TrEMBL record:
PROSITE patterns: ZF_AN1. One of its GO terms (molecular function) is zinc ion binding. The keyword Oxidoreductase does not apply. Pfam families: zf-AN1. May be involved in environmental stress response. This is AN1-type domain-containing protein. Residues 2-49 form the AN1-type domain. SMART domains: ZnF_AN1. Keywords: Metal-binding, Zinc, Zinc-finger. InterPro entries: AN1-like_Znf, AN1_A20_ZnFinger, Znf_AN1.
């Protein structure tokens, strides 16, 4: 990943200040290659979403259900 020139890793087009960095850490991408499908991204966005949901939504059990279980 060469951050000094800021070129797209796929097409080598200059991206300047509008470049995109993916979570897969493969480097900078232009607007055509910023989507995971267009540059062969290996980052698992679904797993990240699942983890975020489980952290933000803990299991809640009521007091009256403790005696029954």
């Amino acid at each position: 990943m060469n951050t000094s020139t800021n070129r797209c890793e796929i097409c080598k087009k200059k991206v300047g200040l509008l470049g995109f960095i993916c979570k897969c850490e493969k480097g900078w991408f232009c607007r055509e290659h910023r989507y995971p499908e267009s540059h062969g991204c290996t980052y698992d966005y679904k797993e990240e979403g699942r983890e975020m949901i489980t952290l933000k939504n803990p299991v809640v059990k009521g007091e009256k259900l403790k005696d029954r279980c």
